[in-house]
Amino acid sequence: MSFDLSAITDTLIQLVKDSWGSAPLWAELEAGSPPGPPTPTFTPNISGLAPDVLETEAGAQLSLFLYHVETNNAVESMFWAPQGASGTGQPVRFLPFALNLYYLMSAFSEDNYHQEQQAMSVALRIFHANPIIRNPTGSPPWELTLTMEHRSYDEMSQLWQATTAPLRMSVVYRAAVVFLDPDTMPSGAARNTSINVIVEQSSGGPSLATELFGTFRRASYQSPSGPVSFTQAPATVAAGQQVWLVGENLTGETISLISEAAVTTDISGWVVAADSTPTRVVLQVPTGAATPATGRYQVQIGDTTAPLGVAAAVDAVGGPVLPHSASVGINGAGFVAGATEIVVGANTVPANQIVVGAGGTSLSFPTPAGTAGTVEPLIVRVQGVESDPALWVTL
After folding, report:
1. Residues 137-165: tens digit of each pLDDT
2. What is the H or E stretch that residue 393 is in?
3. Using an 8 Å Cβ cutoff, are 147 and 174 in contact?
4. Which pTM was predicted?
5. How far apart are the first and last CA of the chain?
6. Are 47 and 171 in the same domain?
7. Across-strand partners of 237?
8. Which run of H or of E encompasses 248?
9. Are 375 and 394 in contact (CB under 8 A)?
10. Is 75 helix (H, G, I), strand (E, B) or coil?
11. Which of 174, 237, 287, 320 suits a disulfide with 241, CB 3.0-4.6 Å?
């Protein structure tokens, strides 16, 4: 899409407006009323205005305020290589621009807290039911994932203080990944074109094209300060975890996992049929011997592929903070001798000090030197793929 962030905001606002009248809340409030479609008790003005402006507007207000934008370097680096000192690669101005957008959603009513809280209730349910937002009529068409972000009370307080508005109930949503069009390449430069083809079947009806947009995962872990939720796109999974394949007309197709060595494995048996739809296929990674080796893969459906990482599983039992000891021992699955990297805080454990147990289900290493009592995060990478955060080490 062109560089117009307001197009994303307008799409999110329109989603709430279109779904407002059919929100389940109205039926719940009208329980016992005569049969018929439920009627909203009120309709707020839904906008992208900042919180301090809402107080100047009449009536109930619901705001989806874009307050922060940052680049998604992880996604960009996975697909594009900018021009380096050697002269290879494309100049940065011609590379797609990947962004994460952060929205503060809040409500306001001069004298009716019911309307404020009901407006938030309806909007939260709408966004929960629509984690993937698409604009098929855009130029070009685009899609993104919408996830609620965990923010501490201190962070939210500082954000509201910056708006000079009194604190109200609010929540932060992350819209990602937004790809903005780069500068147009000079005339004569090679350009890649993507074409969707619809093939006519012998019965005379069209066969809808299968297209895989990418892999997506929503997960959480327990940190020393409390639970943390996060999303990944492209996704990395471990044994026993789930991942979403996002696209069009995905059901009923063979799903393959292709390794970096070009070995193809049919993983159609991983599909959780009850949770899958034509636009979202949920895969459950098997445990035990059926778990694929740790590494980087491509998932293929039809003629389209998307990246997927398989990481070692780190058992969180005994954590999240491990007590101090001369050595650290952890359990899990997928650890590989000679290909496992351990980082504790800023300290990388020498490879010759990492001992991987039989079957790759355990490993141990000496606790790095540091300030006594300091708690540092434990990072585990196998074959270059990083596992989810799970444990912290006490030096």
Report:
1. 555 566 788 888 888 888 888 888 877 77
2. strand 392-394
3. yes
4. 0.49
5. 49
6. yes
7. 310
8. strand 242-248
9. yes
10. helix
11. 237
